[in-house]
Amino acid sequence: MIAAKVIDNIWATRKADSLVGLKFMLVEILGGLDAGRLIIAADTISAGIGDRVLVSLGSSARKMMDREDVPIDAAIVGIIDEDCTF
Amino acid sequence: MIAAKVIDNIWATRKADSLVGLKFMLVEILGGLDAGRLIIAADTISAGIGDRVLVSLGSSARKMMDREDVPIDAAIVGIIDEDCTF
Amino acid sequence: MIAAKVIDNIWATRKADSLVGLKFMLVEILGGLDAGRLIIAADTISAGIGDRVLVSLGSSARKMMDREDVPIDAAIVGIIDEDCTF
Amino acid sequence: MIAAKVIDNIWATRKADSLVGLKFMLVEILGGLDAGRLIIAADTISAGIGDRVLVSLGSSARKMMDREDVPIDAAIVGIIDEDCTF
Amino acid sequence: MIAAKVIDNIWATRKADSLVGLKFMLVEILGGLDAGRLIIAADTISAGIGDRVLVSLGSSARKMMDREDVPIDAAIVGIIDEDCTF
Q1: Distance CA B11, CA B25 (A)
Q2: CA–CA separation, B13 and B10 (whole Å)
Q3: H or E element: which one contains B43?
Q4: Which domains does chain E have, with CATH numbers?
Q5: What is the pLDDT of residues B40-73, one digit of tens each?
Q6: Residue C47: exposed, middle, or buried by beta-carbon count in 10 A (0-12, 13-18, 19+)?
Q7: How far apart are CA E72 and CA E64, in angstroms?
Q8: What ipTM was predicted for this assembly?
Q9: Rounded to an integer, what distance in angstroms lies between the CA atom of residue C64 and that of residue E72?
Q10: Which residue from B9, B26, B37 is facing D34, i.e. has the nearest CB?
């Protein structure tokens, strides 16, 4: 997983049918060489803008969905505790 | 997913049989450290040149196809709304 | 796999149900061009802070779990021997 | 997919049994931030040195094979038309 | 695949049960933008230090194993012929 900060919502009215109803958020990777890299992740755990989150990439992101056929490659899987410094 | 801008069509007359009939587009990643990275993505949702799109990478791209055996690793899965600023 | 050093624990109280009970650790890639890249990996083999570990990425990380539906994309799979210099 | 130019043949007499008979080619990524990155791809569509090709990476590359157990992570899936400028 | 040079053995006495008996080698990517990147790959074809090898990454690496549940994401799949220049 990577640690990232939620920056904004992303809206895409025209999209794959299997993505309808999903919430997408722009996140920015925190720390290390990848800091500043931007990813758009599906969010099913109600993350908010400003939250630091754990993002899972690739086929593992699909494990956050109820079905196997959703074409996402990034998903927020956890929200890092506020008092967790790193 | 990554946010990207559609730059051009890509034509490949000689290709794998399972790719015949698919539309391929050159997209350029927008924003962050990856800005300027180029990807060729399959498009099944009628994106146009200049559109900002969501692109899914890896095995998830194949979920945009009706069959599991299509050798693509990138697909346009959504078109970002024009009034969505980020 | 990549070689990495365990830097810290990562705490995320709010997370996917399938992640409850898993231990997450921040690791930093050692050596080469990727040195300094940060990853958050699941740990099931009791690695400690300061250990040099082998981290497996992508779908292979899920093979460390008892179930296939855990949305992790990085896992510690081994602890490099202390007298192994490289 | 990425666009790449075929640079050379790669010969490996000692290799996994499942790779015997496969043709491997060194390709160099064209354009964008990744220009100059080198990949070795399996070729089943008779690409030649100097051709510009589409290369599929990861599990999708295996979809070019008749069997699922071939350990390749890159395959040439198309040859870009000569009059296609981008 | 990527072309890499075998640098050293990696020893990890404490590791996942499914990794016991596997040989791990540190390899360094050769050529192009990725030159100098380090990977630890499983070796089942008796590569030696100094050999130039083909390394397969991701889920494809698992195809070198007899079982599907081995948590490796990199495997040596071939040894580049000594007289192959590139």
Answers
A1: 9
A2: 10
A3: strand B38-43
A4: 2-79 (2.40.50.220)
A5: 999 999 999 999 999 999 999 999 999 999 999 9
A6: buried
A7: 10
A8: 0.97
A9: 10
A10: B37
What residues of E are in contact with residue C60 (Cβ under 8 Å)? 58-59, 61-62, 70-73
Cα–Cα distance for residue pair B41/E84, rounded to 1 Å: 33
CA distances in angstroms from B80 to A4, A40, A71, listed in the order given: 21, 11, 16
> 3-class DSSP state for residue A29?
strand
Distance CA B33, CA D33 (A): 10
Whether pLDDT at B86 is above 90: no
Chain A residues with CB-CB distance to B under 8 A? 7-16, 18-19, 24, 26, 28, 34-41, 58-59, 61-62, 68-74
Which residue type, as a one-letter code, is found at position A79?
I
Q: What is the pLDDT of residues A39-84, one digit of tens each?
A: 999 999 999 999 999 999 999 999 999 999 999 999 999 999 999 9
Report residue E41 CA to chain centroid gap.
Answer: 3
Return the closest-CA partner of residue D55 out of D19, D82, D24. D24
Q: Which parts of chain E have pLDDT scores under 50? A: none
Kindly report, residue by residue over C20-64, the tens digit of the pLDDT: 999 999 999 999 999 999 999 999 999 999 999 999 999 999 999
Mean of per-residue pLDDT scores for chain A: 97
Selection from E71, E63, E75 nearest residue E27 by Cα: E75
Q: Which two tokens stand for residue C54?
A: 């082998």
What pLDDT is attached to residue C86?
A: 78
Helix (H, G, I), strand (E, B) or coil at D83: coil
Each residue's pLDDT tens digit, B36-46: 999 999 999 99
C18 phi, psi to nearest 5 deg: -70, -10
Integer Cα distance of B71 and C15 in angstroms: 33
